[in-house]
Amino acid sequence: MIPSTGTGHRPEAEPLITGICEISLERAIVPYRNDAASAELGGPIDDIGLGVVLRSDDLLRPEVLDLGSARARQVSFEGPLVILGWVFSSTLSTLREGLRESPESLRRYSFSLALRALDRHGFNEVTRPHHLRIGFRDLVRDLDLHESTALRLAIPGSVVRLHLDYGSTTLVARTAVGGRNPALESALRDAFSGDLLGGRSADATGIQSYHIPLPTPRSVGEARSLMAKARRGFLHLLARYEPARYRAVREHLDAFGERDSLAQLRDRPLPRLQPLSGSGRGSSGRVH
Questions:
Q1: Nearest to 267, CA basis, from 224, 238, 212
Q2: What is the pLDDT of residue 204?
Q3: What is the mean pLDDT of residues 134-143?
Q4: Within 13 A of 31's CA, how many CA atoms are on the CB side?
Q5: CA–CA separation, 138 vs 129, rounded Å?
Q6: How many helices (H) and strands (E) does the chain have?
Q7: What is the rounded CA–CA span in Å between residue 107 and residue 101?
Q8: Count of Cβ atoms closer than 10 Å to residue 222 Cβ
């Protein structure tokens, strides 16, 4: 029975939110945020931010296997939680055994599992950041393989690091100095043919950063086209600032080809839309 609210007495203040939950998230396929890696621009190079919950004894800090790197991560589930599906108990056992026995084969197995999960759910607001992260990860592996999912560029007097904000589809270029660089700004405009926004970081370093908003893709095909544009843009910068490195990268790509993991996913057709006249009337000019 619901207590009456017409007594005129203010009810005792009680907490409405608790961090305690009695369900188990083991076997769930979930997007996650790794707080320990938040300072690493773009995230670690092998991670894709999509994982399977291995253990959830502590529901706010469960153990998740990233399906890109096949590494176990202690992550935070504070805030909204999205579940893309559940793996079989046998699959969970395979993932746990792979952690102990064969990391390389586990990476191949777990990444194929990630692609199947993304393919099943299609391209939407929830899965788009993971599509973009996988695509940008391919780009970094081809052009500047190191520990984080960012591209490094040596310019006179500084180093620029470019990473993709997967949520807002914005390319971010961070310099190592606090002042503006007009020559770099011009080069970024030439390379990516988009709006260029700039500002200094709010922390004590006050370093300069530039933001280039990119068109938000609506499909796997558009995401692949966006990654191709980002690839061409960075190669343009590389040819301008580091010609010797550009030649070495081009030789590598000519010999081994370009990675394109997103090509393994189905591209569902978009609805066909046509431009409408400003009158809002049909061809007959009459409204029925």
A1: 224
A2: 58
A3: 97
A4: 17
A5: 14
A6: 6, 10
A7: 12
A8: 16
Asked whether the beta carbons of 73 and 119 are under 8 A apart, the reply is: no
CB 176 within 8 A of CB 152: no
Q: Cα angle at 86 between 70 and 91, to 5 degrees?
A: 50
> Is residue 220 pLDDT above 90, yes or no?
yes
Q: What is the spatial distance between Cα 103 and Cα 118, in angstroms, rounded to a whole number?
A: 22
Strands laid side by side in the 208-213 sheet: 151-155, 158-165, 170-174, 208-213, 197-200
Q: Note whether 123 and 218 are within 8 A (CB).
A: yes
Q: Which residues face 166 on adjacent strands?
A: none
Structure tokens that stand for 187 in this block: 């080069």
DSSP symbol at 178: S
pLDDT at 64: 94
For the chain, give the number of residues.
288
Tokens for 3?
Answer: 């207590």
What span, in angstroms and rounded, lies between the C-alpha atoms of 108 and 165?
26
Q: Using CA atoms, how far apart are residues 279 and 288, in angstroms rounded to an integer?
A: 15
Return d(Cα 29, Cα 84) in angstroms, integer.
5
How far is the first Cα of the chain from the last one, in angstroms, to the nearest whole number? 54
If you average pLDDT over each of 30-34, 108-112, 280-284, which comes out highest? Answer: 108-112
Question: 59-85 pLDDT, tens per residue?
Answer: 778 899 999 999 999 888 777 889 999
The distance of Cα 144 from the centroid of its chain, to the nearest Å, equals: 18
- Look at residues 60, 62, 58 and name the one whose alpha carbon lies nearest to residue 27: 62
- For the cut 90, the answer to whether the pLDDT of residue 184 exceeds it is yes
